Amino acid sequence: MKQKTLLFGALGMLVVLILFMVKDLFLSSPEPGNNPWKYDLETMKQADTMKPAYTMVKAIPSGLQGLVAIATGPGDRIYTTGAGGAEIYDSACRLLLRFDFEDTAYALTVDSTGNLWMSMGDHVEVWNKTGKKLQTLKSAGRGSLITSLALTGSSLLIADAGLKVVYHYDHMGNMINRIGEKDPVRKVPGFVIPGPWFDLAVSPDGSLWIANPGRHELEQYRFDGQRLLSWGKPGIGIPEFCGCCNPSHFTFLPDGSFVTSEKGIERIKVYNPRGKFSAVVALPGDFDEGTRGLDLATDSRGRILVVDPVRKQIRIFVKRSTTSNN
Amino acid sequence: MPNRREFLTTLFRAAFLTGLGVLGGAMVLRKGKPGECGFGFDCAHCGEADKCVIPHPFESRQMVWQLDPSLCTHCGQCATACVMTPSAVKCVHVYAMCGYCDLCGGYFKPGTKTLDTAAENQLCPTNAIKRKFVEEPFFEYTIDESLCIGCGKCVKGCDAFGNGSLQLQVRHDRCKNCNQCAIARICPSGAYRKVPARHPSLLRGFEQKPKNGDFTQSQENR
Predict the structure, then answer these.
(1) Distance from CA of B63 to the nearest CA of A (A)
(2) What does each C-alpha distance from A28 to B176, B178, B189 come to in angstroms?
(3) CB atoms within 10 A of CB A265
(4) SS3 at position A207
(5) For residues A151 and A79, is the Cβ–Cβ distance under 8 A?
(6) Does the pLDDT value for residue B55 go beyond 60?
(7) Top-level class of domain B66-194
(8) Where are the domains of chain B?
(9) Residue A97 and residue A131 in contact, taking contact as beta carbons nearer than 8 Å
(10) Residue A85 above 90 pLDDT?
(11) What pLDDT is recorded for position B169?
């Protein structure tokens, strides 16, 4: 009898042991411990305590799979592109047209007739406002990644992040010259483009500005390639540009002020036409963590339109004092 | 006497079968990632064996643990959970992606006033990243794996401020390839999986094709 009890006891212990092993091995996952090497980006982002001078008045959900680029056109129409298509909205944010194409458009600008000039990676395509392809410009070459486009009366400016140069074309696609290549004689330091973020824009007074993200500067060039001036410095303070490669995007307000967006610490700011910090538009709290690719556009009313690729929205910011008018 | 022997035999058989049943049940109920059962049952016979990440039941010895950088959240558990000291997980530098920046988000602490190699400026807690001047304004960053503990601090900095060229990977010259990886068990993002030893890396980089409709991914991979 005693032996029997011992045997039952041993058997019971064996079953308990097996169950414990099964639970430990297969059915439980230990709680992760504290991270002694935590890199707290959130605290750093919360250090930006300056109150934004702008407020978001509208967020338009986009039907595009991947939202990438934005531009405004005649009548303050809003044009967006991304993976596999483009959308056109009127100034009141009503969808007018959506059309599809196979590739992803990485950059967009709109001419005075409402035609869309889009970067399809290594080349530019022109589509009309009804969604018909009009023209394909020749590829810039192997390794090219066109990330920004701008049009003036007779020029097409193309920022190529892959080949780290800006091309100056005419509207027929004939190259006139290259801008920004390293040239010690002309005191052009060259562009430092660590990632696929390389923007350019033409200001309301017609001057060409190009971002040099690796140097945290915006540089002004003549159309013949002569570098004129630059401003911007690195840092995590609000007036500075953070990280390794910012500003990632910029554009101009009608009064010639710069609007810039950054990645890493996601923020949008306004600088006056002389490059002096003037206002905050949006801070990291306004975006999901890790949001990058905040392409910008403005309209004639001074509204700032932002592409939010994570939330797949076009977000419209206006100055607080003018909120009631919009 | 024969009764007792018979009783014991039955008892042991019953115990054995119970244990087997419990083990079997646990194996079946074991949680797995979608499309990756862990035993090769999900094989779609696609014919692309070279790209396959689903372990084949007869190839278990040729499978090794690896960390998928696209899922990694840089939580720091790789440094503490590994059975090896220091961890078999190390920072790997994908040079083809690197911007060779002067102000490197993976090397410098945020807010650093002077961009030099002073210890107080460095993000890495073990001074495992070496910075070398190449030409104005470019700097090369190399990882000293003997010092790297796999904490992922630099990886988080590079991911946030740079273009993600610093990535964590299991180094197979150090990894013991445990049957159940201790880090994989606690990884909060499920970034660990077994991969064929003939393709032991899961680096995110230029060679990957853009996913349709995922611009961020495709941009990063260019």
Answers:
(1) 20
(2) 22, 18, 16
(3) 22
(4) coil
(5) no
(6) no
(7) alpha beta
(8) 66-194
(9) yes
(10) yes
(11) 96
Give kind and range of the element (H or E) at residue B154.
helix B153-161
User: Which chain B residue's Cα is nearest to A45?
Assistant: B110
B8/A7 Cβ within 8 A: yes
Residue B219, min C-alpha distance to chain A (Å)? 6
Q: Which of residues 24-53 of B touch A (CB under 8 A)?
A: 26-27, 29-30
Of A308, A312, A267, residue with least CA distance to A65: A312
Q: What's the mean per-residue pLDDT of chain B?
A: 80
Chain A, nearest residue to B100 by Cα: A194
CB–CB contact A37 B220 (8 Å): no
Could you tell me how many helices (H) and strands (E) chain B has, helices first?
Answer: 5, 6
User: Are B15 and A15 an interchain contact pair (Cβ–Cβ within 8 Å)?
Assistant: yes
- Nearest residue of chain A to residue B96 (CA atoms): A194
A and B: number of Cβ contacts within 8 A: 143
As given in the structure block, the two tokens for residue A27 are 């059915």
A20-50 confidence digits (pLDDT tens): 888 877 666 666 667 788 888 777 776 666 7
CA dihedral B28, B33, B39, B42 (to 10 degrees): 100
The helix/strand/coil state of B207 is: coil
The 10s digit of each residue's pLDDT in A209-253 is 999 999 999 999 999 999 999 999 888 888 999 888 899 999 999
Give one DSSP letter per residue of A227-292, joined into a string: EEEEE--BSSSTTSB-SSS---EEEE-TTS-EEEEETTTTEEEEE-TTS-EEEEEE-GGGS-TT--
Cross-chain Cβ contact B101/A263 below 8 Å: no
Rounded average pLDDT over B65-78: 93
Q: What is the ipTM of this complex?
A: 0.72
**Spatial CA neighbour of A83 closest among B47, B19, B214, B85:** B214
Handedness of CA A275, A279, A281, A285 (dihedral sign): positive
The reported pLDDT for the residue numbered B35 is 42
Distance from CA of B174 to the nearest CA of A (A): 22
Query: Are residues B160 and A15, on separate chains, in Cβ contact within 8 Å?
Result: no
**Minimal C-alpha gap between B62 and chain A (Å):** 22
Neighbours of B64 (CB within 10 A): 18
